[in-house]
Write a structure and sequence with these properties.
CATH class: Alpha Beta
Protein name: Centromere protein M
Keywords: Centromere, Chromosome, Nucleus
Low-confidence stretches: none
Order of helices and strands: EHEEHEHEHH
Distance between the termini: 39 Å
Strand order of the largest sheet: 2-1-3-4-5
Number of domains: 1
Subcellular location: Nucleus; Chromosome, Centromere
Organism: Gallus gallus (Chicken)
CATH superfamily: P-loop containing nucleotide triphosphate hydrolases
InterPro entries: Centromere_Cenp-M, P-loop_NTPase
Length: 177
């Protein structure tokens, strides 16, 4: 049960890796497929995990992870607890701009099982942006995929002059406005 570390491995040339953690099933898979369909000028590796830690026996085959997106389903308290438990297996250096919280199901606020304050507090405690979306709607799923790809591109160091930490600070400041 190893802790994920952001700089343990060398980056791969012309590629970036994102890890989607949480909210098992269709929406997470559909988001990954939407990301793969988008036009991009670099190779993308998408890994899906229901929770952390990742199995250590395949660690030597796993590429360097550039961005971790924790997926929280707003209608499932288990989803939030799963993400909170998984955070213990992430090295603190990932929280310097290489983590975001993706909250799904916001279109069904009347079926909400998770306190919004708990989600905002999670983002604040871990200095990471919180992104709200509805992955069941195609248009919003595509927009979310594009946004995550741009974040991944920045986190992988593929945008000159913009670091992951700087971008994360910009996102956090704009969320408070």
């Amino acid at each position: 049960m190893a802790v994920l570390r952001p700089f343990d491995k060398l980056p791969e040339l012309n590629s970036a890796t994102i890890l989607l953690v949480g909210a098992e099933g269709g929406p997470q898979q559909q988001l990954a497929e939407a990301m793969l369909r988008e036009k991009k000028d670099f190779n993308i590796n998408i890994h899906l995990a229901s929770s952390l830690p990742l199995p250590s026996e395949r660690d030597h085959l796993r590429p360097r992870i550039d961005l971790i997106a924790f997926v929280i389903d707003i209608k499932s308290k288990y989803s939030l607890k799963n993400v909170q438990a998984s955070l213990a297996y992430v090295d603190v250096r990932f929280f310097l701009g290489k983590v975001c919280f993706l909250v799904t199901g916001v279109g069904r606020a009347n079926n909400c099982s998770v306190e919004m304050n708990a989600i905002w507090k999670l983002g604040e405690d871990y200095c990471s942006p919180v992104i709200f979306c509805e992955l069941e709607l195609e248009g919003i799923r595509v927009a979310t995929a594009q946004r995550l790809l741009r974040m991944l591109q920045i986190c992988a160091g593929r945008v000159p002059g913009v670091s992951a930490l700087y971008f994360s600070l910009l996102m956090r400041n704009s969320a408070g406005d």
